[in-house]
Amino acid sequence: MRIRGESNWMKALDFGLCAVVACLAGPASASPAQEPYHLVPGSFTPGREPDGNSIFLDGPRGLILIDTGRHPEQQARLIAYARSVGKPIVAIVNTHWHLDHSGGNAEIKAAFPRAKLYASRAVEGALKGFLPRSRAEAERYLRSGGATPEQAADMRLDFAAMDAPQFLRPDVPITGSSRMTLAGRRLQVNLAPYAATEGDVWIYDPATHVVFAGDLVVPLVPFLDTACPEGWRRALARISATPFTMLVPGHGDPMTHTRFETWRRAYGRLLDCAASARSRDACVAEWKEDAAAFIPAGFKVDEMAAYYVDERLRAKPDERQRYCPGGAG
Ligand SMILES: [Zn+2]
User: Fold this and answer.
1) pLDDT, tens digit (0-9, with 9 covering 90-100), for 172-230
2) What is the DSSP string of 225-236?
């Protein structure tokens, strides 16, 4: 999601991994007529920043696209899918402003100019805080000459997205949770305030009992960089109370409700451990055990998990509360 010179993603990937796409890509798709949704899995390519999952929902008045990825290759796949079914994308939903989910908005709107963007207003704070801070860090890293050509290309992609903030800002802001009609299709659109970001959007489709959770659910470790940890815990409790049978996370494979509860329990225990007197290493070990089903073979998450315990969950109160109500943003 981020543009820092050395992201935690890179750290995980550098440890060596399974055939990345094979282990984290979604399952083979059924034929379009049978699908309650169409998943275009996000990418995890070694040495590159990731793309989040993108999902299409078919509506009477066109296609709804949830998240637009970061890389042009992902947007090309999305546009090709829409063309293949012969319907326009009329609604884009960003689950959150991280650029692996929203960086492709401009490309999608260029191909489908009538598409309206539905997102929370959290990007406004990000455009003033996190994104320029990350950009300054990335520019320093570029100047140092330490970036690989792939890292430099990813950073420039993110700079371009930041230079066109009109494509990150919603046409229709999501300011609360309500039933909405998108592309002629009724969906429960939910705002989780102060969770993985200042405003995460997650969707429940009552017709098919599927939740689209964005990065409120992810493999490896919860990405706490811009998170209010307790708000995130509350968002997971709300998702838990929803009568869904399948959940599509922001990255990785769709999961059943039971499997989601395993993730939610692991998340809660990580926060509880970090708030206790137990050692950092004990918290990391517990996470790895609790969340083993979400850590693909070949991935090592120790360094990422330790980073989040030390730098986010056990940071000084100001830093810990930075992305919570009243925080510095
Ligand atoms: Zn993401």
Assistant:
1) 999 999 999 999 999 999 999 999 999 999 999 999 999 999 999 999 999 999 999 99
2) TT--HHHHHHHH
Distance (Å) from CA 112 to ligand 1 centroid: 24
Q: What is the CATH number of domain 8-320?
A: 3.60.15.10
Residue 215 Cα to ligand 1 midpoint, Å, equals 5
- Integer-rounded Cα Rg, in Å, for the chain is 19
Which pLDDT tens digit goes with each residue over 228-239? 999 999 999 999
What distance in angstroms lies between residue 277's CA and the mean position of ligand 1's atoms?
A: 30
Q: Does the pLDDT value for residue 25 go beyond 90?
A: no
What does the domain layout of the chain look like in residue ranges? Answer: 8-320
CA 34 to chain centre: 26
Distance 279 CA to ligand 1 centre (A): 28
